[in-house]
Amino acid sequence: MWMLPEILVGLAASGGTAVVTAAGTDAWLGTRTTVARLLGQDGRREEAVLQRLDRTAADLARASDEDAQGALERVRAAQSLSWETRFTDLLQDLPEPERDEAVRALRSLVEHVRQHAPGSGASAGTGGFAVSGDVTMKATNGSVVAGVVNGGVRVDPPKPGPVQD
Question: Are the C-beta atoms of residues 96 and 80 closer than 8 Å to each other?
Answer without folding.
Answer: no
